[in-house]
Design goal:
Two copies of one chain form a homodimer. By secondary structure, the first copy, chain A, is an alpha+beta fold. Chain A is built from nine helices and twelve strands. Chain A has helices spanning 7-16, 19-22, 85-88, 111-119, 122-146, 151-162, 172-178, 183-195, 211-222, and strands at residues 2-4, 32-36, 41-43, 51-57, 59-65, 71-78, 81-83, 97-100, 104-110, 167-168, 199-202, 205-208. In chain A, the strands form three sheets. Chain A has a five-stranded antiparallel β-sheet with strand order 1-2-9-4-7. The A-B interface holds A 75, 85-86, 89-92, 119-122, 125-126, 128-130, 132-137, 139-140, 143-145, 147-148, 180 and B 75, 85-86, 89-92, 119-122, 125-126, 128-130, 132-137, 139-140, 143-145, 147-148, 180.
DNA sequence: CATAAAGTATGCTATATCTCATATTCTAAC
DNA sequence: GTTAGAATATGAGATATAGCATACTTTATG
């Protein structure tokens, strides 16, 4: 993890990503730039999260751990998006675990100095509301729709989103839980992809050989 | 539909439902009380919706119509909740169709006079954000979890929420679509409930005979 | 290093759910 | 009122997915 507060750097990035349409100007002086490398952790689970992040580049996995100690993949966060809104709004006191899937760049606002500014910034709050409203709408709609299709389709979509540089190597147990399918059936479908030449197994990894095939399965669902 | 702007009435209701924790005081003078009877329409689909409603009592069904003219049940709205946030935030320009399932009472803020007050009211925006955040979180979580259970469970939950005074009489075609299950399978499960004596068919209606049974099926899912 | 726990892998059976076919009401439009 | 289009109803066969058993690997832990 790398923090930059260089005025130059900060201002350029804020410009590019239209900071002023998302936050009021008063917040600009507090912005830091946090960058993370692939596989790095953005937050430790269970600990309070002292920033509001606006992720402008990259992709991350968000995890949650249950009472029994089991860890579950909760969602994929893709730029541009917020991270840490939940604890800012005090919907969830503790952070979920977040891991970078690719190199990530965030505009970071330290809550220590910005919390009350944020909670009184109508530009920000309007944006947040709009984003959350869209999320709530999309999320359940897409999820519901996707369940009308066989697992093959959902899995194809998942492989596309989680593979990086043509290589899929998620843990089967975790994915099965995330996609609400039995481990057995996931393996079965995976095998089927291999037989069809869509994926190729190489040690622990699966190489995507027929991208188009997966995309077609995904797009069938989306409308 | 009945509109009241009697100061008495408005103030009493606002007091009871903690208006001041949800909106700033400046909005108080604009509040109207709108009441609807069971089966009445709160909004015509496709038309702009000129109010923000805060529903303090009752339950409603929200519908959407697709390009092809098919109408779909989208969600159940239960007090306390907002109606019309989407068009306020301009996420969706036109209203969905909303039908009262029971008698409904709403605090209504006319957008003509209140729109910009609302969009600059940090108390309101904070609340809206929090509610939407919780919705986004819950919705997908519950939905996902529920799909891990057989249809019987989801259906039981649906019957409980949609029945009024112990009578279930939704259209099977519509429900099948809403619950993402085939019409055939829905009928099959319904029949099964009848055979088990949980429901009793009476003309077009189904009388709930064994509430506890349905509740148990529902609660199995919820955790 | 040894052992336990977790992940991977595969086969078989059971079941939830879908698809299609077909008949019978109901409802709305002319 | 007649007729077309929905909605209801039921049956039989197909398939997607779950469940269980079992074996082998990898990873963590003492």
């Amino acid at each position: 993890m790398l923090i930059s507060t260089q005025k130059n750097h900060v201002e350029r990035l804020c410009e590019i990503h239209h900071f002023n349409t998302i936050f009021s100007k008063e917040l600009l002086p507090y912005v830091e730039i946090h960058t993370f490398q692939k596989k790095e952790s953005l937050s430790q689970e269970g600990e309070p999260f002292p920033y509001l992040y606006y992720m402008v580049k990259g992709k991350a996995k968000v995890y949650m751990t249950h009472k029994n100690g089991q860890r579950t993949l909760v969602l994929f966060a893709e730029a541009p998006c917020f991270l840490g809104e939940m604890s800012l709004l005090e919907v969830e006191p503790f952070a979920k675990g977040v891991t970078a899937m690719e190199d990530i760049t965030c505009l970071a606002l330290p809550l220590a100095t910005c919390k009350s500014l944020l909670l009184n910034d109508t530009i920000f709050l309007r944006n947040l509301s709009r984003i959350l409203a869209e999320k709530a709408r999309n999320r359940s709609e897409t999820l519901a729709k996707s369940y009308a299709y066989p697992f093959e389709n959902r899995f194809a979509a998942f492989i596309l989103i989680s593979a990086s540089e043509g290589v899929y190597n998620e843990m089967h147990t975790e994915v099965a839980e995330f996609l609400n399918v039995s481990y057995r059936h996931l393996l079965f479908t995976l095998q089927d992809f291999v037989v069809k030449g869509v994926l190729e197994k190489e040690g622990r990894n699966y190489i995507v050989k027929n991208d188009a095939f997966l995309k077609q399965l995904r797009d069938e669902m989306i409308d």
